[in-house]
Structure formats: C-alpha cells, structure tokens
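Hi V.,

You were right to ask for the full record rather than a summary. Here it is.
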Amino acid sequence: KLLASGSYDKTIRLWDVATGKELRQLLGHGNRVTSVAFSPDGKQLVSGGLTDEPIKLPRGNVLISDWADHLRLWDVESGQHLRKYANKGFAAAFSADGRTIAAGALLPDIQPDPTEAGRLVINGRDALSLFDSTVGDEGRKIALRGCAVTFSPDGMVFASGYGSYCHFRGIMGGGGELAKKADYRASLWELVTGKEILVLLEPEYPWVITFSPRGKYLATSSSRGGVWLWHMPVYLGNSELGIEEIGLKQLDLWWDDLLKEDAAGAYRAIWKLASAPQRSLPYFQVRLKRFIRPEEKRTNQLLIQLADARFEVREAAAKELREAGRGIEPVLHSALHAKPPLDIRNRIEQVLGDIRGRLPSGEELRILRAIQVLEQVGSAQSRKMLTELAQGSPYALPTQHAQGALKRLERDPESR
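Predicted structure:
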C-alpha cells in the first residue's frame, strides 16, 4: 500500500501506491538519500545515504567527498525520526524478523603514500556491518566488504555487493589522480554463522541487489543499467547424481553437511537435497521425527541432573539443555515456577540466559537448514512436514522458521 523513495534533494517521500499521491516527506538527511527499506511489519523505515561532513586531513586541510552517512530509523505512520545509528551506510536492509539491520557502506581509508613523502593515498573501503535494530550498537562486521545489501526471504542468508571502486592519490592540500580498478563481486553469507556461502564475479559494480520471493534467484544491477540474474541451484549445486544413485550413504553425508559450520558446504547440501525430493523427503521424515515431537521427558531428566552432586554431571546436563535451543523454554519456566532451591534456580536461569543470547548451532542449526530444504521443495509432503514442525514450542526457532516457510509458500502461486 505504501511506497518509499529516497532522493537527491535529501528527502524521503512516502506514496500511496493505489492513487500515486504523496503522503508525507521525512526530513533529516544532510545529503542524498540512497537507500530506504521498510521493516517486515511496515511500521518503521531505515534509510541510508551520503554524508555532508568533510573529512579532516593533516595540516588542517579537508576533503569533501561522497562517503556513507549514518543510518536513520523512522516511524512510518507519524514520520517521526526515531534514531540516528552509529553505523553508516549507502544501503540498508531489515532481516525477515526485523531484529537485524545490515548496513553497506563505502568509507574513506586515508594513509600516507609509502612511495612518495607528502602524498596521501585515499581509498574507498567497503564496509558491511550487522546490528540489532533496537539497540543500534556497532554490531558484527562480516569480512568488511559490502555496499549493496539484502536478506533472503527466510532471513537465513544475506547478500552483499562490493568491489574495488576507486582510489585517489593526492598531495595534501589538493591535486591528484583518480584510478578505477575493476574487481566487482557479490557474496552470499549465512546470517547465524557469519560464514561466506558463495562468491559471484560481477561484470560491473553491483549497486542494488535483491532475492526473488523464494530465494532461488539473486538479481544485481549497476549504475550503468545492467541487470544480472543468478540461479542459486546452479551455482550452489543441483545434485549431479541420478535418483537411483542417491542411496542412504549419500543422504547421510548431506545430512552431516547440514550440521557443519562450513556454510558453503552446508548450502551445497541444501540445494542437492532440494533437487532430489524423492529421496530426501522420506529420509527427513525419519530424521526430523524427534524434532517434530520433542521429548519433554528428556528435558525433565536433565533438570534433575542439574541438581546432581557431581560437577561433571551438572555441566553435561546444562550443555545438553543449552544445545536443545529455545524450544525447551516453557519447560524451564515451569521448573522455575515450582520454586526450586536457590542453587538450582540459578543454574536454570543461567541456561535460559545462554539459550536466549546464543546463535543457533549444532542440531538446531541443522534443523533450520533442513527447513530451507523443505521450503525449496514446496510439495504437499514437504508442507505436511513443515506443518508438523510449526506446531512446536512457540519459543523455538525451528517452529518460527517453519511457520514463516508455510506463509511464504502460501503466497507463492508457483507452489500452490
């Protein structure tokens, strides 16, 4: 219903899509606005642009140039400016759950010229950061590369476009030369691990980058007007094996790949499993059974072990509880409501805090990746398995991701 646009006149404008009428202007940027993105619920807007702040050089000189400005957050309904983030960016994007913002920027990196005294080398340095949208801290830096950014529809992957854009060599106080170097790329990263999945070599600098609704295609475009489509199954690996060649041993290998921190290997396994649903779905039906119906009995056994007199038993129980993920939160809260002794209560609260603060890993991460396989297959059988996973604990990430996958499949006419 709403369209947001950023402009060279320093404004953000909100438009009614049906009527084409301008609804309001958002003012606050000091220079061009180059990126706007709605939060998933449509209530907030993040924007990025170019700075109007001069860069101070030695001997009191300044350089006026187009570097990234601070990101800003806006309330869509009122137009109120909510926050000016420390993070800078030409481009910004919200994750699927709205909790994370990715910022892509070109920032100045000024160093003395090692080959000639009294000269400076001023490089445009790509910088990519991820941060909490509510806190706005500096967040994680991912390989320090990226001007264009976007998240996949399921929020598990984000893509960045980057390259060696330009270098300026000049004497302090003025004069110099501009040199361009063609080295343009787009990278895919797994959000929860921060590991690179795939690098695509681009013919031009990718200023804009976005996924298709199901995440099967990545589109990139440049300032020269070119648009490129990248088919993810091709680049991440459809299975080259015939159906009759995919046996239990091969499925076990791919299943093991879903557990590894090597994101590139895990995503090759995701697309290979998705390309062979006749084999992968029956295999998943067995493997995912215990996650579809989590064993509360085992959680209660581990809670008893938290009270064991032996340190190693308590530590092992706490470790297994943490690895179980947020799905066991209701059981832990029930245990706290029973008013256990103070030492037991402290251990349970410690486990709860660790579960909430950690990124998915181990079995939980494997299940999230398996859910990606089920969504890409999109068949009646895979939907049934997603429906069963979606009925788990509302606290659990697999439950939330399965629910999101079902909603996306429902909106996708090709999967109906």
